[in-house]
Amino acid sequence: MRLPTLVSLLLAGAVAGLAVPVPAPQAAKPAAPKAAAPSSPSEVTGTVVETMESGGYTYMKLKTSSGEVWAAVNKTAIKKGDTATLAEPMLMENFESKTLNRKFDRIYFGSLAGKGSASAAGSAAMPPGHPAVGGPASGNIAAQHAAAAAGPSDVGPIKVSKATGPDGRTVAEIYAQKATLKDKPVVLHGKVVKFLPQIMGKNWLHVRDGSGSADKKNDDMTVTTADTASVGDVVTVTGTVKIDKDFGAGYAYPVMIEDAKISK
Q1: What is the DSSP string of 121-142?
Q2: Domains of the chain
Q3: Strands (E), 157-201
Q4: Among the four residues 47, 181, 245, 264, which has the most C-beta atoms within 10 Å?
Q5: pLDDT tens digits for 201-240?
Q6: 72, HSE (Cβ side, Cα atoms, 13 Å)
Q7: How far apart are the C-alpha atoms of 152 and 222, rounded to whole Å?
Q8: Cα separation of 260 and 246, whole Å?
């Protein structure tokens, strides 16, 4: 004999005036809590077991108490066996370095303790793809321009010969002739004293040739380019002079060279 269906039982119960128990619906299982995003520690300390340099930056593998980790800072003199402490580190996962052609599963960005904090150095000094330290992932433009505008603290004596040709100028000459050079091409021969990649989609260089003076603020030329260079390179810059460039947040440049080509 076939067992009566639930429908037939309900009908039969209704006719007989009997209450037919109906199984109560099972309560939904609570959703599993989501894993919290990894947070960055206040500092990372370890022994340097491997280093590499690219594009003006130093990458270090550190042996810490919790295992080996990668870290990246502005180019610095450090060697295997040294103890390094990374201040204000920010963790990034699946970071790809274009200049190294390498992908890091996990890497910390910051600055070496005792050599200026990451916020003071400006997060724009980090490799392309790295979010601004102390700012939103989209980038803190004010901090980026603060980093671009600030010259290096010590570059030593510089004496580079003037570029040849009708467009050849020294740094001091570009400042002195900026009104007549506006929107015109120039060629500058100088030494790279600072390199900052990917600020507002461009690489930014500071170039000096020994002309001008810090007192007159005409010894350092800001250059934007799609090309790359390393601090210490002597390069030829070919680009267009722009004057009175104002990028907001209080950062303006009386003269600079934009969209330059860089050759060594």
Answers
A1: H-GGGSPTTPPPTTS-TT--HH
A2: 43-139 (2.40.50), 168-263 (2.40.50.140)
A3: 168-169, 185-199
A4: 181
A5: 788 899 999 999 989 999 999 999 999 998 889 999 999 9
A6: 27
A7: 12
A8: 19
